[in-house]
Amino acid sequence: MTFFSENINRIDSFPECSPSELAELLSAPFVVTGHVKKWPAFKKWTAEFFSERYGDHVVNVAALDEQERPMTIKEYFAYFTALNEGRHSGELYYLRDWNFEHLFPELQSDYTTPPMFNSWTDDLPVGERPTLRWIYIGVKGTGSSMHLDTMDTSAWNAVIKGKKLWTFIPPATDKIMIAASAAAPREDAIICIQNEGDLVFTPSGWLHQVENLESGISLTENFVNITNYLAVRQFLIDNDEMDHVALLDQLKNEHCAEAQSA
Known about the structure:
27% of the residues lie in helices and 29% in strands. By secondary structure, it is of the alpha+beta class. Strands 1, 2, 3, 4, 5, 6, 7, 8, 9, 10 and 11 form an 11-stranded mixed β-sheet that branches. The model has no long low-confidence stretch (mean pLDDT 91).
């Protein structure tokens, strides 16, 4: 068994912050323990709910070797339940990156995005928005390897059911350092256990990996706003996505104008 010492900042609720206090809070990962339990999703999102409501929807599930196969939601939860009850053994599959926003937007009414995590991309027409909302459903032993989030955005993850182990590595600009961080433990790593009802924040630029210590259901959103605008903009420049840079600058100017007139 692996032993570890948790060293993450935990708060009960989201504080009222000045711009400088918000910047300090969002400079490192943290856990909020009281927010998610207030959502309808916390009691509503179960294996039975998803199987009955969305059972015929086909998703891709990934094995530990990253090979994917299609399953319906109902089939996956039948496997999920059988494995948890000891009636199934063999390959572990992770239903990850389920993009529900476009096909099942009603699920967004079951939770509330914390205001400090509101994304400028929500101002875009539905067909032009990048995919930044996902549901993850995984059995014990599945997870995500060390990675950076898409477009250098920031993210939050809420556990509805289950338990996760997170490992975070502070930002590194050197690609060799990033590779080394992914390959070996670091003394400056931040480690935490995410329990049911906990929300974990991942800042832009932080490497992280996640292991499902228990089978469960979680929700995650990535976001772009004033708190990570420069990092996302630089990512787009580095990848020669100048049209997206112009769009991001437009969103920034619109939001700054709104803030000044408020």
